[in-house]
Amino acid sequence: MTSAEHDRLMRANQANWDARTPVHLASRFYGLDQDPDPERWFAPFEWEDLGELAGRDVLHLQCHLGTETIAFARRGARAVGLDFSEASVAAASGIAARAGADVTYVRANVYDAVEALDGRMFDVVYTGKGALCYLPDLDRWAETVGRLLRPGGRLYVVEFHPLLNSLGPKPAPGEGPELLLRHDYLGGGGPVHRDATHTYTDGPAVEGATDSYEWMHGIGEVVNALTWVGLAVRRLRETDELPWPRWPRMVRTESGWWRLPEPRIPLLYGLLAAR
Fold it and tell me: Nearest to residue 42, comparing CAs of 262, 255, 266, 259?
């Protein structure tokens, strides 16, 4: 697939996320009718891996509504969120203002982040939980991240496991308790096209741009893209917990997240890399 075709599909995704934003703002899933609780979106191990953030420059790529970005600001970071959806960035700015959080939001495609941020460099770049699947070219992404990080800076990817993506992020209509593989685990098979009036949240139907495209990326592809640009992988975690109950039989854990009673399979991973 050519770069022009990639750009066309990413513009379709941008329109789709613009259309999703009012749905997500109205959903119980995000709970934005109350004071935002950004901590709920983080596994405890994330804070251990990220370390002290006070006084550090932190960039959250593909931040959508900025719910996690607020958590970085509350921990003393100079936090910046970047997203390609104009509607998301506007909503995130309003959410942060109401929460009293000092966050800067920038609208840009992740591949244009260096130029959009005027060459600014960061101590930490954070991304994940449903972000990488919207990027067709991980080598280009890794090159961008490398240019955004200061020497000694760290990238932290906390992303849905490729196995979960293969099983599907939400139940299919009439789905039973079985774990059924629906998509590739590995990349290279081209984009998965979705035309859906409802997203992963509750809330009203999406109006207008309902088409979206996702690309599968195995963990090996992520690691190889990062090492190719000179980043060193410091830690890789896999966990069987999710911040929402993907399957009805999932049980609540001490962390407040959810896991399957059996089988124990990886649903999320955390990858820490350093420049």
Answer: 255
CB distance 212 to 182 below 8 Å: no
Number of H helices, E strands in the chain: 8, 12
Nearest to 111 by CA among 87, 140, 80, 147: 140
272 token code pair: 């820490």
| Residue pLDDT, tens place only, 189-241 | 889 898 777 777 667 777 778 888 999 999 999 999 999 999 999 999 999 99
What secondary structure letter does DSSP report for 270? Answer: E
Of 31 and 211, more confident: 211
Both tokens assigned to 127: 């991304």
CA distance 265 to 250: 12
pTM: 0.93
- Written as one string, the DSSP assignment of 113-139 is HHHHTTT--EEEEEEESS-GGG-S-HH
Instruction: Give the C-alpha separation, 49 to 63, whole Å.
Output: 19
Q: How far apart are CA 102 and CA 93, in angstroms?
A: 9
Instruction: Kindly report the backbone phi and psi dihedral angles of residue 245, in degrees, each rounded to the nearest multiple of 5, phi listed first.
Output: -80, 95
Please name the helix (run of DSSP H) or strand (run of DSSP E) that holds residue 259, with its range, or none: strand 258-259
